[in-house]
Specification:
Helices cover 19% and strands 21% of the residues. It has helices spanning 5-10, 58-74, and strands spanning 18-21, 25-29, 37-43, 82-85, 101-105. The model has no long low-confidence stretch (mean pLDDT 94). The structure holds adenosine monophosphate (AMP) and zinc ion (ZN).
């Protein structure tokens, strides 16, 4: 989708700090990190949000999560963990309409609904 920010990153039209790339996935650091480790994992296919997932894309979401946890471990968060987040649409606070998993780690995040992320 030509107007989508993450599609532009995937196409290389906007620079990003890439962590991983394959035929169907891209992972890059969030431009405004909210934790010492904060990256995003996105499908190269434009899927607007999790609520618009089609059955044929369910395996792709599994791949996104598998890569996210692999990268989290590579970046030193395997032992202490972190938070995997997907915001969806307006009420979820989604600001970029291209499906993405956030991973935040490297510090203790507030446990309940008090953090900035969970509102
Ligand atoms: P969300 O609010 O869940 O839609 O998350 C969108 C995320 O994309 C935010 O955490 C932004 O900081 C991040 N973001 C926006 N523009 C860029 C960019 N050019 N490169 C990397 N991350 C970005
Ligand atoms: Zn897109």
């Amino acid at each position: 989708m030509s107007s989508c920010l993450f599609c532009k990153i995937i196409a290389g039209e906007i620079p990003s700090k890439k962590l991983f790339e394959s035929d169907d996935i891209l992972a890059f650091y969030d431009i405004k990190p909210m934790a010492p480790v904060h990256f995003l994992v996105v499908p190269k296919k434009h899927i607007a949000n999790l609520l618009e997932l089609e059955a044929e894309d369910s395996a792709l979401v599994g791949k996104l999560f598998f890569k996210a946890q692999e990268l989290a471990k590579e970046l030193g968060c395997g032992e202490k963990g972190g938070r995997f987040i997907i915001n969806a649409k307006k009420d979820g606070g989604q600001t970029v309409d291209h499906l993405h998993i956030h991973f935040l780690g490297g510090r203790a995040l507030r446990p309940k609904l008090t953090s900035w992320f969970l509102g």
